[in-house]
Fold each of these.
Amino acid sequence: MKRPPPWKKKRPPAPEPGAGEERMRLNRFLARAGIASRRKSDELIQGGKVRVNGETAGEPGRTVKVGIDRVEVEGRPVWLPEGHEYVLLYKPRGCLVTRRDTHGRPTVFDQIDSLRPGTVAVGRLDQDTTGVLLLTDDGELNFRLLHPSRQVKKQYEALVSGKPDASDLLALRQGVELEDGPTAPAQVQLRGGDDYEARLEISIHEGRKRQVRRMCAAVGHPVKRLKRVTFAGLGLGRLKPGQWRRLSPGEVRSLRGRAGLGPS
Ligand code: URA
């Protein structure tokens, strides 16, 4: 087929005035700026505490042009933070690490109401595993933290059936045979228990699917409860299940440093 000459090619339509600017619902804007949750932000808006370009914003559904509209809460200007987003969630039991579940089950993204659309979890935890889950839109950091060459340490507390004996602990430490190959050496400590169940502290740097559960099952002690207590040196601190916080600039610096990256 003959190509049309360049002057006959259809040009893309000229952009509408204002195209390309980011619009965001006001309650989401306030939540992202760290003012309050979306629900509380709606209350602030309805209470007449929020002004946009000098005018009281009464309707919770209104949108703002990010970086263009001037937003104030009780007379104080509000901005969105620049740079990437880094969030640490205490993942509760029963929710999935996925953006949306086709069966409508709860996900970790339901726990946090103001995340940027590009923010994703760094790795996964099973539905029934609790503990540290990092979420970020810093793709390079995410990639590096999960790359096997980085050997990022993940520490777990596992409640297992029965009491592992010395040979079980040795096997876990040296590596057990799983269907996708032997596991790398792990640090494993018995932290108490009785003949029915025992607590293990397990540190690994691999990140295979259901790895800790499969390791414990392989030595005859299936996991009853599993919690990730640290990831890349980040712990839960005072967070309770379902609570989250943003990382401090110092934590971001050291995390990126650990991954061989400079400041973001
Ligand atoms: N290992 C598991 O078995 N499950 C998790 O969620 C994380 C590590």
Amino acid sequence: MNLAVYACDPVLSRGRRVAQAPAPTRTEYQRDRDRIVHCSAFRRLVYKTQVFLNHEGDLFRTRLTHSLEVAQLGRSVARSLRLNEDLVEAIALAHDLGHTPFGHAGQDALDECMAQHGGFEHNLQSLRVVDQLEQRYPQFDGLNLSFETREGILKHCARASAERFEREEPGGVGRRFLERWQPSLEAQLCNLADEIAYNAHDIDDGVRSGLVTLDQLQEVPLFNEFRLQVLSEYPQLQDAMQGRRLLYESIRRMLSAQVYDLIAATQRAIDADPPDSLDAVRRRGPLVQFGEAMRAQSRTLKIFLLGNLYRHPTVMRTTGLAKQVVRELFAAYLSCPREMPGSYMKRSAYPGAISERAIERTVADYIAGMTDRFAAREHERLTGARLLP
Ligand code: MG
């Protein structure tokens, strides 16, 4: 691969927390990606909600298919910009590993339960999964990933958490939040690939669910521009029976436009003053970016999805039930920790916990790792009430 000078080069990686001999046939980032694909948290993503609860339909995105789409978009942009595709893929596949069951509802409920115990944040939890919670190697906890992959996973981090990371791992993944440095371009890219992916697939899933209609989408300029373009080229798609083709073709063009815009705007920003190394990238402002017009259009789309899909009364109703499941599970395990598997009781300490051995953190880890359906079943087993199918 012909990498740019400002791309992450696996040969120059800052390495793993526990030193390991290089693999004979794979680069360090390929090895990270392989470890992620083989870990159990990754497999559980298939039964975790993105927006729609897992039981609501087989065709909606799950965390797994979302992560695959982010990886696809990210790699394709990385290739154009001569960034490291393997690293982008590793970060993209791992970026949602810390998500709770039931999407943001689960995360919000767990964060409330943990309010007095260091809180809960899915992004920190993703790092915690790969650093500590996966237990599959004899020599270390977690997956012992490269610094650059871990840096990319830790997308945001409050100051207090960054200070804790810095105490545990001086000069490590917490440092950039204290110094206000940027992460690698590969990490910056994953954030935007995430956004492009969910904006597009949430339109698709929204229409599929019947909660959002093609007519409503006409108020979103970014979508409507391509809908009109498609209709003028293929007038036969006016037919209501052809609605799916019209939707897919409009989304496809919208996705491509965002990807090309991202590549062009980022390349412009790089060319204006090319960084001569990864270190130079870290000390700049964010370089991976949309052009101004696309940024505004993307924001309008997000606002539309928030108002019309994420806060749709039907979504909110299941959201309320999902929160109740999480709250009641938390209370049940807290009052009777032996209901959790024995291995959970021996988990290592969490740097974010007020008390290093806080039982609350163990309970949060256990619940966060659950799939939607396992959480619903456990809730029924412990409370006798069936809140979700
Ligand atoms: Mg995501």
